[in-house]
Structure formats: structure tokens, C-alpha cells
Amino acid sequence: MSKLETNIIAPSTGTTITIGESGDTVALGSGATQTGFGGVMTPAFMAYLSANQTVSDNAITKVQCNTEIFDTNSAYDNSTNYRFTVPSGQGGKYVVFGAVQSNSANDQYNTSVYIYVNGSVYAGNTINFYNTTGSEASPYIQYIVNLSAGDYLELFGRCDTASGSNVAFYYSSAHSQAKSTYFGAYKLIE
Q1: CATH second-level architecture of 44-187?
Q2: For residue range 89-101, what is the model confidence (pLDDT) as tens digits?
Q3: How far apart are CA 145 and CA 131, in angstroms?
Q4: How many CA atoms lie within 13 Å of 19's alpha carbon, on the beta-carbon side?
């Protein structure tokens, strides 16, 4: 085996350099690092609800996740319209996720969570149950969505009770004080 020591490898013609052949493994030496390969999974954001949000019974309502954990491209509006807008030049496939926890209502029988794209429902999930103990329902959703620059994402929820009384999207679990209602997305490397 011979050793090649150089600072730059450039193609003699064209723009392609081939390292190895079919079936070969190309490995970095111990302690070596790489740059210029792969990519980063941004834009990305995650936000949560910092206080209970009162909602009308059986009404699909935008979830106002107002506290950002991170927002790599300042593309999520956490104070006005509670939406993520794909920045210029950042179209592609995004993993979008969220959860809506409804507070304890002794007659509640279902809670739903929805991902909206450009103002229309894209995907949804519902938990159906009859509650007599004051527990919470927390449906979760995750989807891969193909988005273009300027497209926007929103999280909506719905709580439906047998009595028709108003309920709330809950900001934390009574048991763990976790951030129970949240919304986020990140771009996949392609």
C-alpha cells in the first residue's frame, strides 16, 4: 500500500473526482474530521404553549405556541400568527410535528391535533375517550411535508366535550410539568 500526501486534489478534466470503486469502503482516519459533505437539518424550530389557551368546545382553533425553544432561521412567528414560513431558498422536505394536550374535563370525549399547510388541513390525529377522573388527552402528530419557499405551517387543535363546555389547550402536564402542547419542524437533508 502506498501513501499519498497532498493538500489539494482537483480533477484534471470536468468536475467529478471518484474515490474508490464499487464495494470499497472509504474511511476517515482516527481523529480526522470532514467538511463539505452532508448538510444541516435547518431551518428548524420548536415552540410550546406557556400558559393554558381557552378554546370553544368542538371548534378547530389555532394553537398559540408562544415560547420558542429554538428557531434557527427566525422563521417562526411566536407572537402574532403562530406560524412557520419557509425562508427563501429553503424549499424541500420537512418533518413537522406537534401535540395538543387538553385540560381535565370530566366529560371530555375527544381531542384532535392538525397540521395545516398554507391555511388548509394537511394531516390530523384524534384521541377518543370518556373521562371521569380528570385526566388529560394528548394526541401527537408527525408528518413529512414537501414545502416551497413562502409556504407556511400552523398547528390547530380541537376539544369536543359531551356537555359543550369550553376547555383549554394545556401548557403542562399536571404530573410532570412538561411542555405538553408544542409545535416544531426541521428540514431533511436530501
Answers
A1: Sandwich (2.60)
A2: 999 999 999 999 8
A3: 34
A4: 7
